[in-house]
Amino acid sequence: MKRREFLKGAILGTALVAFGEALATEGYSGTGKKGLLRLKNRENPTVLEKKHVPAIDAPNKVGKDEWFEVKVRVGYMTVHPSTPRHWIDEITILVDGVEVAGTDFKVGGVSAPEASFKIRLNKTSTIEAIENCNLHGRWISDPVTVVVIKEPTGG
């Protein structure tokens, strides 16, 4: 009788641990075998989405081949907490799906989860930002369209 109860307990315990791990990591893959994580519902974001989806600050219009600044802050609603155990280790900028700039944060929790990049465009393009959280994986921003006009904007 004791052996049967022990086996039932061991099997049930193993199943609960496996189920708990699956729930804890559902949809969140560290280096992207399941792909990048995105904001699913802007009207009802999860706590993780609020802190992990990158926010892009860029001008709406720029002159052709004119340098301009793109700022990225990790956490579009709430700034990522960044502690020695939970930090952002990289931010990358994509233009029309191609990586054009990025930065690495070497030490956990010391650097603010934000970065600024100077880029230039020769045509209207879509900019996205990807960040990697050491605990919650790779997140991508909503796309931002920057319109390129022929004349410099003076900015």
CATH superfamily of the largest domain: SOR catalytic domain
Largest sheet features: 6 strands, mixed
Counting helices, strands and paired strands, the structural category is alpha+beta
Q: What is the CATH C level class of the largest domain, in words? A: Mainly Beta
Number-wise, the strands total: 9
In terms of DSSP E residues, the strand content is 25-35%
Question: Keywords for this structure?
Answer:
single chain, 155 residues, alpha+beta, Immunoglobulin-like, 2 domains, three-stranded antiparallel β-sheet, 2 helices, elongated
Briefly summarize what is shown.
The chain is α+β, with helices and mostly antiparallel strands and 155 residues long. It has two helices and nine strands.
